[in-house]
Protein backbone atom coordinates (compact mmCIF):
# COMPACT_ATOMS: atom_id res chain seq x y z
CA UNK A 1 0.00 0.00 0.00
CA UNK A 2 2.97 2.32 0.52
CA UNK A 3 3.60 2.32 -3.23
CA UNK A 4 -0.06 3.20 -3.84
CA UNK A 5 0.08 6.25 -1.58
CA UNK A 6 3.53 7.20 -2.92
CA UNK A 7 2.14 7.16 -6.46
CA UNK A 8 -0.75 9.37 -5.36
CA UNK A 9 1.62 11.90 -3.81
CA UNK A 10 3.92 11.91 -6.84
CA UNK A 11 1.06 12.62 -9.23
CA UNK A 12 -0.37 15.40 -7.04
CA UNK A 13 3.06 17.04 -6.91
CA UNK A 14 3.44 16.72 -10.70
CA UNK A 15 0.05 18.40 -11.18
CA UNK A 16 1.17 21.26 -8.91
CA UNK A 17 4.45 21.68 -10.77
CA UNK A 18 2.94 21.24 -14.26
CA UNK A 19 -0.62 22.62 -14.33
CA UNK A 20 -0.41 22.49 -18.13
CA UNK A 21 -1.23 18.76 -17.81
CA UNK A 22 -4.79 19.81 -17.06
CA UNK A 23 -5.26 21.81 -20.26
CA UNK A 24 -7.70 19.20 -21.55
CA UNK A 25 -10.31 20.64 -19.21
CA UNK A 26 -10.32 23.93 -21.12
CA UNK A 27 -11.96 22.11 -24.05
CA UNK A 28 -14.96 20.79 -22.09
CA UNK A 29 -17.11 23.98 -22.15
CA UNK A 30 -16.59 24.25 -25.92
CA UNK A 31 -17.64 20.64 -26.57
CA UNK A 32 -20.66 21.13 -24.32
CA UNK A 33 -21.58 24.36 -26.12
CA UNK A 34 -21.37 22.67 -29.54
CA UNK A 35 -23.59 19.76 -28.49
CA UNK A 36 -26.10 21.96 -26.64
CA UNK A 37 -26.32 24.42 -29.55
CA UNK A 38 -27.04 21.55 -31.92
CA UNK A 39 -29.80 20.24 -29.68
CA UNK A 40 -31.30 23.71 -29.31
CA UNK A 41 -31.30 24.18 -33.09
CA UNK A 42 -33.11 20.84 -33.45
CA UNK A 43 -35.55 21.85 -30.66
CA UNK A 44 -34.52 18.78 -28.63
CA UNK A 45 -33.58 20.33 -25.29
CA UNK A 46 -34.97 17.16 -23.69
CA UNK A 47 -31.72 15.50 -24.81
CA UNK A 48 -29.57 17.97 -22.83
CA UNK A 49 -28.18 15.18 -20.57
CA UNK A 50 -26.56 13.72 -23.70
CA UNK A 51 -24.66 17.00 -24.18
CA UNK A 52 -23.35 16.85 -20.61
CA UNK A 53 -22.50 13.16 -20.49
CA UNK A 54 -20.70 13.06 -23.87
CA UNK A 55 -17.98 15.68 -23.12
CA UNK A 56 -17.50 14.17 -19.66
CA UNK A 57 -16.72 10.73 -21.04
CA UNK A 58 -14.64 12.18 -23.86
CA UNK A 59 -12.53 14.08 -21.31
CA UNK A 60 -12.08 10.96 -19.20
CA UNK A 61 -10.94 9.02 -22.25
CA UNK A 62 -8.53 11.80 -23.29
CA UNK A 63 -7.11 11.95 -19.78
CA UNK A 64 -6.65 8.19 -19.61
CA UNK A 65 -5.15 7.91 -23.06
CA UNK A 66 -2.95 10.98 -23.17
CA UNK A 67 -1.96 11.81 -19.60
CA UNK A 68 -2.35 8.74 -17.43
CA UNK A 69 -1.32 6.39 -20.23
CA UNK A 70 1.95 8.24 -20.66
CA UNK A 71 3.12 8.39 -17.05
CA UNK A 72 5.78 5.68 -17.42
CA UNK A 73 6.95 7.07 -20.73
CA UNK A 74 7.32 10.53 -19.16
CA UNK A 75 9.19 9.00 -16.21
CA UNK A 76 11.61 7.44 -18.65
CA UNK A 77 12.15 10.73 -20.51
CA UNK A 78 12.76 12.63 -17.25
CA UNK A 79 15.04 9.99 -15.70
CA UNK A 80 12.69 8.79 -12.94
CA UNK A 81 12.16 5.33 -14.40
CA UNK A 82 15.77 4.31 -13.70
CA UNK A 83 15.22 5.15 -10.02
CA UNK A 84 12.00 3.13 -9.90
CA UNK A 85 13.73 0.20 -11.61
CA UNK A 86 16.59 0.24 -9.11
CA UNK A 87 14.22 0.26 -6.12
CA UNK A 88 12.37 -2.83 -4.81
CA UNK A 89 9.06 -0.95 -4.99
CA UNK A 90 6.15 -2.43 -6.93
CA UNK A 91 5.82 -0.13 -9.95
CA UNK A 92 2.34 -1.44 -10.79
CA UNK A 93 0.94 -0.28 -7.44
CA UNK A 94 2.66 3.07 -7.76
CA UNK A 95 1.26 3.41 -11.28
CA UNK A 96 -2.22 2.61 -9.95
CA UNK A 97 -2.00 5.44 -7.41
CA UNK A 98 -1.00 7.85 -10.15
CA UNK A 99 -3.62 6.89 -12.75
CA UNK A 100 -6.40 6.90 -10.13
CA UNK A 101 -5.49 10.50 -9.24
CA UNK A 102 -5.54 11.47 -12.91
CA UNK A 103 -8.84 9.67 -13.50
CA UNK A 104 -10.43 11.25 -10.42
CA UNK A 105 -9.37 14.64 -11.76
CA UNK A 106 -11.24 13.71 -14.94
CA UNK A 107 -14.51 13.91 -13.00
CA UNK A 108 -14.10 17.69 -13.02
CA UNK A 109 -15.28 17.46 -16.62
CA UNK A 110 -18.73 16.37 -15.40
CA UNK A 111 -19.01 19.47 -13.20
CA UNK A 112 -17.71 21.69 -16.01
CA UNK A 113 -20.17 20.32 -18.56
CA UNK A 114 -23.12 20.62 -16.15
CA UNK A 115 -22.17 24.22 -15.24
CA UNK A 116 -21.83 25.16 -18.92
CA UNK A 117 -25.31 23.84 -19.59
CA UNK A 118 -26.76 25.69 -16.58
CA UNK A 119 -24.97 29.04 -16.92
CA UNK A 120 -24.89 29.54 -20.70
CA UNK A 121 -27.96 27.60 -21.84
CA UNK A 122 -30.21 27.68 -18.78
CA UNK A 123 -30.46 23.89 -18.79
CA UNK A 124 -30.15 21.90 -15.56
CA UNK A 125 -28.97 18.31 -15.66
CA UNK A 126 -31.79 16.08 -14.34
CA UNK A 127 -30.61 14.04 -11.37
CA UNK A 128 -33.52 11.66 -10.96
CA UNK A 129 -31.28 8.96 -9.47
CA UNK A 130 -28.32 10.72 -7.78
CA UNK A 131 -26.91 7.57 -6.15
CA UNK A 132 -26.96 5.74 -9.45
CA UNK A 133 -25.12 8.65 -11.06
CA UNK A 134 -22.52 8.72 -8.27
CA UNK A 135 -21.89 4.96 -8.36
CA UNK A 136 -21.67 4.98 -12.15
CA UNK A 137 -19.15 7.84 -12.10
CA UNK A 138 -17.01 6.02 -9.51
CA UNK A 139 -17.14 2.80 -11.56
CA UNK A 140 -16.23 4.83 -14.64
CA UNK A 141 -13.18 6.21 -12.82
CA UNK A 142 -12.17 2.62 -12.00
CA UNK A 143 -12.56 1.54 -15.62
CA UNK A 144 -10.73 4.64 -16.86
CA UNK A 145 -7.83 4.00 -14.50
CA UNK A 146 -7.70 0.36 -15.66
CA UNK A 147 -7.64 1.46 -19.30
CA UNK A 148 -4.88 3.97 -18.51
CA UNK A 149 -2.83 1.19 -16.92
CA UNK A 150 -3.11 -0.88 -20.08
CA UNK A 151 -2.18 2.12 -22.21
CA UNK A 152 0.81 2.91 -20.00
CA UNK A 153 2.05 -0.65 -20.44
CA UNK A 154 1.54 -0.61 -24.22
CA UNK A 155 3.11 2.81 -24.72
CA UNK A 156 6.20 1.96 -22.71
CA UNK A 157 6.81 -1.37 -24.43
CA UNK A 158 5.87 -0.27 -27.95
CA UNK A 159 6.93 3.35 -28.15
CA UNK A 160 5.58 3.83 -31.69
CA UNK A 161 2.08 3.03 -30.37
CA UNK A 162 1.85 6.50 -28.87
CA UNK A 163 1.75 7.96 -32.39
CA UNK A 164 -1.63 6.33 -32.94
CA UNK A 165 -3.06 7.32 -29.55
CA UNK A 166 -4.82 10.46 -30.72
CA UNK A 167 -6.58 8.57 -33.49
CA UNK A 168 -8.01 5.99 -31.07
CA UNK A 169 -10.45 8.38 -29.40
CA UNK A 170 -13.07 8.83 -32.11
CA UNK A 171 -13.65 5.11 -32.87
CA UNK A 172 -14.15 4.49 -29.16
CA UNK A 173 -16.53 7.47 -28.85
CA UNK A 174 -18.67 5.85 -31.55
CA UNK A 175 -18.38 2.30 -30.17
CA UNK A 176 -19.11 3.61 -26.68
CA UNK A 177 -22.14 5.60 -27.84
CA UNK A 178 -21.02 8.58 -25.78
CA UNK A 179 -23.23 11.00 -27.77
CA UNK A 180 -25.33 8.86 -30.11
CA UNK A 181 -26.64 5.69 -28.43
CA UNK A 182 -25.43 2.49 -30.02
CA UNK A 183 -29.05 1.49 -30.74
CA UNK A 184 -29.04 4.05 -33.57
CA UNK A 185 -25.97 2.46 -35.18
CA UNK A 186 -25.78 -0.69 -37.34
CA UNK A 187 -26.70 -3.84 -35.44
CA UNK A 188 -23.27 -5.47 -35.81
CA UNK A 189 -21.68 -2.71 -33.73
CA UNK A 190 -23.55 -3.52 -30.52
CA UNK A 191 -21.74 -6.78 -29.64
CA UNK A 192 -18.44 -4.95 -30.14
CA UNK A 193 -19.60 -2.12 -27.87
CA UNK A 194 -20.21 -4.53 -25.00
CA UNK A 195 -16.42 -4.71 -24.60
CA UNK A 196 -16.00 -0.93 -24.43
CA UNK A 197 -16.46 0.45 -20.92
CA UNK A 198 -17.71 3.80 -22.30
CA UNK A 199 -20.79 2.00 -23.63
CA UNK A 200 -21.91 0.84 -20.17
CA UNK A 201 -21.02 4.16 -18.56
CA UNK A 202 -22.86 6.32 -21.10
CA UNK A 203 -25.90 4.04 -21.05
CA UNK A 204 -26.11 4.02 -17.25
CA UNK A 205 -25.62 7.77 -16.88
CA UNK A 206 -28.36 8.48 -19.42
CA UNK A 207 -30.69 6.07 -17.62
CA UNK A 208 -29.88 7.66 -14.26
CA UNK A 209 -30.90 11.11 -15.51
CA UNK A 210 -34.26 9.75 -16.67
CA UNK A 211 -37.12 9.85 -14.12
CA UNK A 212 -38.09 6.27 -15.04
CA UNK A 213 -36.65 3.48 -12.84
CA UNK A 214 -33.17 2.34 -13.87
CA UNK A 215 -33.57 -1.21 -15.16
CA UNK A 216 -30.91 -3.87 -14.47
CA UNK A 217 -28.69 -1.34 -12.71
CA UNK A 218 -26.70 -3.97 -10.81
CA UNK A 219 -25.77 -6.17 -13.80
CA UNK A 220 -24.92 -3.16 -15.96
CA UNK A 221 -22.78 -1.62 -13.23
CA UNK A 222 -21.16 -5.03 -12.72
CA UNK A 223 -20.25 -5.19 -16.41
CA UNK A 224 -18.62 -1.77 -16.14
CA UNK A 225 -16.63 -2.82 -13.05
CA UNK A 226 -15.67 -6.12 -14.68
CA UNK A 227 -14.22 -4.37 -17.73
CA UNK A 228 -12.27 -2.04 -15.41
CA UNK A 229 -10.92 -4.98 -13.39
CA UNK A 230 -9.90 -6.89 -16.52
CA UNK A 231 -8.10 -3.79 -17.78
CA UNK A 232 -6.22 -3.46 -14.48
CA UNK A 233 -5.17 -7.11 -14.65
CA UNK A 234 -3.96 -6.79 -18.23
CA UNK A 235 -2.15 -3.53 -17.45
CA UNK A 236 -0.40 -5.06 -14.42
CA UNK A 237 0.73 -7.99 -16.55
CA UNK A 238 2.24 -5.76 -19.24
CA UNK A 239 3.91 -3.36 -16.77
CA UNK A 240 5.31 -6.18 -14.60
CA UNK A 241 6.68 -7.91 -17.68
CA UNK A 242 8.33 -4.67 -18.78
CA UNK A 243 9.88 -4.14 -15.32
CA UNK A 244 11.11 -7.74 -15.18
CA UNK A 245 12.90 -7.35 -18.50
CA UNK A 246 14.25 -3.91 -17.54
CA UNK A 247 15.68 -5.23 -14.25
CA UNK A 248 17.01 -8.41 -15.83
CA UNK A 249 18.87 -6.60 -18.60
CA UNK A 250 19.67 -3.41 -16.66
CA UNK A 251 18.11 -1.13 -19.29
CA UNK A 252 14.93 0.91 -19.43
CA UNK A 253 15.21 2.68 -22.75
CA UNK A 254 14.68 -0.30 -25.03
CA UNK A 255 13.39 -2.97 -22.59
Radius of gyration: 19 Å
Classify the helix fraction into a percent range.
over 70%
Strand content: under 5%
**Helix count from the secondary structure assignment:** 12
- Listing every helix as H and every strand as E from the N terminus to the C terminus, the arrangement reads HHHHHHHHHHHH
Which structural class do you get from the secondary structure elements?
mainly alpha
- The shape, in one word, is globular
Q: Uncertain spans, ≥5 residues at pLDDT below 50?
A: none
Write the layout of secondary structure elements.
Layout: H1 2-17, H2 28-41, H3 48-67, H4 71-77, H5 80-86, H6 91-105, H7 108-121, H8 130-157, H9 165-176, H10 189-193, H11 197-208, H12 217-249
Q: What attributes does this structure have?
A:
mainly alpha; 72% helix
Quick gist of this model?
This protein has 12 helices and no strands. With 255 residues, it is mainly alpha-helical.
What does this structure look like?
It is a single chain. This protein has 255 residues and is mostly helical. Helices cover 72% and strands 0% of the residues. It is built from 12 helices and no strands. The chain has helices at residues 2-17, 28-41, 48-67, 71-77, 80-86, 91-105, 108-121, 130-157, 165-176, 189-193, 197-208, 217-249. The longest helix is centred in the C-terminal third of the chain and has 33 residues, at 217-249. The radius of gyration is 19 Å and the shape is globular. The mean pLDDT is 81.
